[in-house]
Amino acid sequence: MSELIEKALSGDGVLRLTLNNSQRRNALSEAMIEELHQAINAAGESPDVKVVVLSGNGPAFSAGHDLKEITAAREASDNGRAFFTRLIEKCAAMMTAIVHCPKPVIAEIDGIATAAGCQLVASCDLAYASETSRFATPGVNIGLFCSTPMVALSRNVSSKHAMEMLLVGDMISASDAERIGLINRVAEVESLNAFTQDIAEKIAAKSSLTLAIGKEAFYRQQVMDLQQAYAYAGEVMVNNMLTKDGEEGITAFVEKRPPVWRNE
Question: Which Pfam families match (predicted)?
């Protein structure tokens, strides 16, 4: 296994996955996508992992797809069609795996996040960025509309803001990314790591079962109409109340003591 993804698990159950190809600005090459997908799946299955924090080494969180890899693929007899299809399908599967992962996934951005890198930020459950970070979906500038990044982007920000990013292709500041809802909050460069870690540890202290129930329900109800969403969420709420952790949490609150989670 190469070192495209660095992994570090804290005693609190916070797993840090760090994109580690700074020379290529952490480009989402086919190999990077595969390793990240495997790491996300493994995190989802590990009882030791409570929360995942995704970051990048170097001046870029991720600059998106590896354009040199894409250019090289054009030498094939089909002008790259088979490779392009495989690459985009693998990338979509990896982004979807983040959404489907039962563990909360937090993006920590210190640098640029462009194209599929911006898509990666939008695919995470939470996102925190340094004040010097910048974001863009600039494909339109090179004749390649950011159609797949558009899917995640348009599910995070309003249509007008998404279309402006997609049609203009300019970089936006971290403060603007916060304003339109692409990221949660902005922190100073020096305190970003500690800030994100604090959020991750607060989440990791909750019942893992409850977090998994809630995350799945959040994304499932988003695509339902109002009546369906309430019916589904109501069923989820009842089932959650019947779990041991649901009972323990309410009992502990009434008894004014810290809950002891069993993740059952």
Answer: ECH_1
